[in-house]
From TrEMBL:
This is Clr5 domain-containing protein. Residues 218-229 have a biased composition (Basic and acidic residues). InterPro entries: Clr5_dom. Residues 77-98, 139-170, 218-250 are annotated as: Disordered. Residues 146-168 have a biased composition (Polar residues). It holds the Pfam family Clr5. Residues 168-215 form the Clr5 domain.
Amino acid sequence: MDSFFLPNYGANPSIVRLNAIDDEEMPDSIPFTTSPFPDILVSTPDAAEMTVFSTSHNGFSDSAMLGFLPADPFAVQPSPTSSPMLRPPTDRTGSPSTTPFSMDVLQSTLGRDFPQPSWGILTDGPAGPIDISPLLPGTPAFLSPRPNSLARSATSSASPKRSPSVTNEEWERLKKDIKRLYMEESFTMQDTVKILREQFNFCVTRCLEKWNWRKNDTESARQLRRDGKSPVTPNKKTARQQRRPPINSTSSLLAEISARTCGLCEKLLHWVKSLIFRSSKEDVEWRQLNRVGRLPVFGQELTSQVAVGLEHFASGDPDSGFPVLSHMFWDLGDFVRKSDITIYATLLLDIPSIFYEFKNEVPFLNKYFLYLHSLFGEFQKGDSPIANAVQAMGQLTAMDFDQARGCLSQLYRVVADAYEEIQGRDTFDSIERHVEAINATGSTPDTQEVGRIITALDNMQILAASHQGQLQSPNIIEYELWKIELLRSIETGNQFVSRCNRLLESIATVAIDKEWRLWEPWLLWICGEVMYELCRFFDKVGNDEEWAENLEGCILRFRCAITMDETWEELLGWRVVLYRLQLVEFWTEAGKPEQAEKHKRCIRNSACWEAMLREHAELPSFFD
């Protein structure tokens, strides 16, 4: 079939007149996008600008454009090269910000004492038409379990000693991880046994020498062992590297630092996984899943505030960046009171991923981890897994910035595997993290993995339809939007643009009112998200004109959604401000100051910006 069923969503039952925020921003005739609606043009003097519902609130995290990871979730990956929330400053300015800053200024700006917990550095060890044929009766609706990424095949031919309580299956499942910890990451025997016991609940014998694993073999000796040959030299001595370099040598120091960072990364991954498993058993949020069957996620406005503040610093305007970041710091106080499972993604994934894009602002990131850890202690969460994860990430960032960013890219896959292990199948949450992991490295994703996720989304559409008794489910549109986000980096230009336009045309076809400004906020949000994906696509291929056109269209629809329902302002207001800042930079460089000034006025008049200035009247105003 060449199309799919969509719900008959249309105008608000009580259609209200939209008051234009800035009439000059909306011309008499605005195309929907690059020919998505050939017969529909907008023409009204009461044009209003618009914004979006948080993707993370509805199951889409637009703060995590992440890339694909290898099968080993603990392998350090290249740092992300792009952020979902913001266009890197090097796109149009040519280089990152070098604006100096003073922590004293930040301290005075915040006007609040920041407890400085004493952290010791750990040293204990180192396209085509949309087909609904899968939705026909008789199609299996359940997803098959996928093996956890930690389950690996055996690589050693030795027959090791095992504890009587350890089964052969358990041994084969974890043998490669034991070898990785002990051999490749240089953990001591005691630390290896401890990690296995705490993280895997696996009690293993300490007779490591009987496993035929030798730490000090040379590469040639290890290759001989892999080939099944004896590594013994003619004089009957095994070739070995120097057991311990001179104590003052550079290699000794680097090896010690590497061992510490590896240990911190391992602890970070362990604590996040523990948080998810503990929450699945104890947290009431697991029993209050929303209509699409996923855990609620909060904090989209905090992520947008971080992006806006850092954009100001990147553009050389710290006087405007400090108020926004300080506002975000104040909001953290109420945010950490929520359930850990609903806030960990924002605090440990989304906000750090944006900070890591601005290496010159590392002191702000260090202050963020310090302050966040102190807040957990203040609210009796100091010994919780999320507090321990924040502490480990803060220590890792202070020791090795690049290593910390690489560890973050591994975290998405570990989280996704944890959700799958708990549920026994693909879930809305696990797919979300897999999509983020696919974009983490910025490289072209594996088409086989992408195909598996697309199949999982198709199966979830079947489940959604079977639960509601019909195919006209709002979930189906959200699944199609997710497919667009997933395929943006692997489909060719014509295929991807056609896929986006088909979804936009389908939404317009089922809408009751043909004037898109009168659609329900939810439909406006979907259209804005599709335009944002087109914007990111054209930015990647270097088409600046299409990038600006689609970003303008995204803002208009988001603002219209906010006008129809003011509750969307809290979630999407800062995101609109962020996109306007990017357009200010673009139009200024393009030699059109009148367009840049228009967006500056809209930023000054936005509800979220005015509310921020009212709460912190002593902070400097924007664009003064």
